[in-house]
Write a structure and sequence with these properties.
Layout: H1 2-5, H2 20-32, H3 39-53, E1 63-67, H4 70-80, E2 88-92, H5 98-105, E3 109-113, H6 124-130, E4 135-139, H7 150-160, E5 163-167, E6 175-176, E7 179-180, E8 188-192, E9 205-209, H8 212-222, H9 230-235, H10 256-267, H11 269-287, E10 292-293, E11 309-313, H12 321-330, H13 346-352, H14 360-368, E12 369-372, H15 380-395
Parallel strand pairs: 2-3, 2-4, 4-5, 5-8
Antiparallel strand pairs: 1-9, 6-7, 8-9, 10-11, 11-12
Helix pairs in contact: 2-10, 3-10, 4-5, 4-8, 11-15
Length: about 400
Amino acid sequence: MSDLANDLPFLPFALPELGEEEIAEVVDTLRSGWITTGPKARRFEQEFVSFLGEGRPHAQGLEAIAVNSATAGLHLALEALGIGPGDEVITTTHTFTATAEVVRYLGADVVLVDIDPRTLNIDATLVEAAITPRTKAIIPVHYAGLAADMRALHEVARRHGLKVVEDAAHALPCTSEGALVGTLDSDATVFSFYANKTITTGEGGMLVTRDPELARRAKVMRLHGINRDAFDRFTAKVPSWYYEIVAPGFKYNLTDIAAAIGLHQLKRLRGFQARREQIAAAFNEAFADLPLVLPPLAAAGDTHSWHLYVVRLSDEAHVSRDAFIERLFALGIGVSVHYIPLHLHPYWRETYGLSPQQFPHSQHAYERMVSLPLYTRMSDADVSRVIHAVRHALRHR
């Protein structure tokens, strides 16, 4: 197998694509003297809403609140919706812990449900079956960049009077029945700009909502519960030093340095998505004859963001998942697993008495899944290298 690697440098699982425009904007920010939340964070919020709303009547009334992580955005959204002790929030076991931990921040309980084995997204039927008188909200996750079944989830929410907060960390830009995620009828949608996401600010996120009260509360709680925006206070032409603390808030604001990167990443988003789709298509074609379950495609007319390219070993594969990963690393290919389901982690398992038998589809997928490199900085030669490595690793007994 070492011959196939041919002394090539290790190909990492993910790398951000940052250009001279991002660098120049950051330098401009540093020279401006305004490096924390200020004019560029505000611009980023405005341009994000413009991106979601371009030519879409149903996107009217959206407001975006820039935050320092998607975790922060989820926490702010749930807090603004009044989630607290005694409440339950339903989400999927097949996600990163941030989706669920924000519920615990507020003293509420998490109820985990299984996934649809085809899409790996939360199963709306299981959501409805898990509802109790304590249930207050649902957090669907758009796994890997494929939209969850939002029509079914919204119908469940309407029938039972529940709030919906979308974890869209993987979902920029993806669509559900032709509508961009972020413009649907949910109470809030939260995006991530972490280093490996479809656009990045290093660390960062965006909370999007149509609810003016939710937006107002999130803005106050984003920065210590202060009732005035710091940017307005420090740029006013008349004395405006006075402010009031109206709630015990958090420190969740996005800096202008980070927003400067985001401004140009957002401009490149459509091109980024097209390149990701191109790489995914090359993988789909190359792996069609292998003992793999390939990622599900978006429905006709919809867009997949292709944040992740997750394959699952089929029963015909003569290699375990862990051995497959070891072979790919030996060939110089960085891979990962998304995710170790929450029901397997000590905190969630012990807090709620969970077992793999309660989540057969997530457990089955986890035991067979591998996330392959898929990012815009990959050259065609890098893509070919991944293809050859996967084929070689599956041939070798």
